[in-house]
């Protein structure tokens, strides 16, 4: 049968293809960032697990993980190691990949990249689930980081072969990863599932990534799927191909695979020129994410309210969940409006809140964290939309991959600052 999906028979057209691709990129965004989000949501539990192994005074659960709070001399109730340690393992490999891979990744076909992303994501869940030492847990987090970093730069580069609106689908999907990952982890552990069982259940997500890419997306003729050379065949019926090409002529935002694409790799000079032009996008994005992740991994753990009905670990999980809810809402807003500039002052307010402890309730922090997530999501999705819109066709694939380093660099710098801040407050 010539049609890929029976339900597309009556209207196998550019509209059907457009929605399949939008949905495919939504699922790819969700699956790609899922493991990364889950590891951040589990950061407190990962560190608590290792503390439990090393302490004879701890109350241990049947799976080796502990609830409750660390015993220490600081009124901030700190883990011996900051949750920024998990963030560092979750983001540093991503940064290294994003800074180096765009120069050579064009030599690896997209099909192999997606398979590698799925396998490393699955391995991350397995390693963290069955870890018996901190180094094993960190290794699992590193595997999640490799999957997320390689996937993000690959899928952002992949958007240049499709209509521009798939950038909105990707952005919304990455926001959906935040909500689904943080909410599922927080919710399932709150209901009584052990963190180990929860992580094993989530193995379905890497499988969904692979299925979405190979069976939901409509592969354009120019996409280098299994070879670095662009194929000239779409696998569609002649009449379907003709309809898609006619639609592309009518609407310049339709599948860009039907338009002429200048082939051949960019020279080093061209790449440096593109990188220079990206600074106006990358630097503001990095600043926003620096502020946000300094809050998330440097201050969140210290914003503990002992009189709440939620334990310290539960409060931390729900901070992460509400942040991701805000991210999802704002990353899904591209179809409604676009924003070029954002200013972030949350980090200053929360720093004073940690220092002077003047906030009376965790509920106030919940509202602030939700607003913080909205700002981060707006910054991310609008940055890549305007890069896609304003970059030359020949440079767009490299630019979309290279610009993904902006948020990652900001997160890494925030991690460096989080360690001394954690140490300072926990020594009080």
What labels would you give this structure?
428 residues; mainly alpha; Growth Hormone, Chain: A; 66% helix; 0% strand; disordered N terminus; membrane
Low-confidence stretches: 1-11, 56-73, 231-262
Principal-axes geometry comes out as globular
**CATH topology type:** Growth Hormone, Chain: A
The run of helices and strands is HHHHHHHHHHHHHHH
Number of domains: 1
User: What is the CATH C-level name?
Assistant: Mainly Alpha
Report how far apart the termini are.
70 Å
Spatial extent as radius of gyration: 22 Å
- CATH homology superfamily: MFS general substrate transporter like domains
Overview of this structure, please?
- It is a single chain.
- This protein has 428 residues and is mainly alpha-helical.
- The protein has a single domain, classed as Growth Hormone, Chain: A (Up-down Bundle).
- The protein is built from 15 helices and no strands.
- Helix 10 (268-299) runs parallel beside helix 14 (393-403).
- The longest helix has 32 residues, at 268-299.
- The radius of gyration is 22 Å and the shape is globular.
Summarize the structure.
By secondary structure, the chain is mostly helical. It is built from 15 helices and no strands.
Structural topology:
Blueprint: H1 14-41, H2 43-53, H3 84-100, H4 110-129, H5 134-158, H6 166-190, H7 195-201, H8 204-216, H9 238-250, H10 268-299, H11 312-331, H12 346-356, H13 362-390, H14 393-403, H15 405-426
Helix pairs in contact: 1-5, 1-6, 1-8, 3-5, 3-15, 4-5, 4-7, 4-8, 5-14, 6-11, 6-13, 10-12, 10-13, 10-14, 10-15, 11-13
Subcellular location: Endomembrane system; Lysosome membrane
Transmembrane segments: 25-43, 114-147, 167-187, 199-219, 341-358, 364-387, 399-421
Main location: membrane
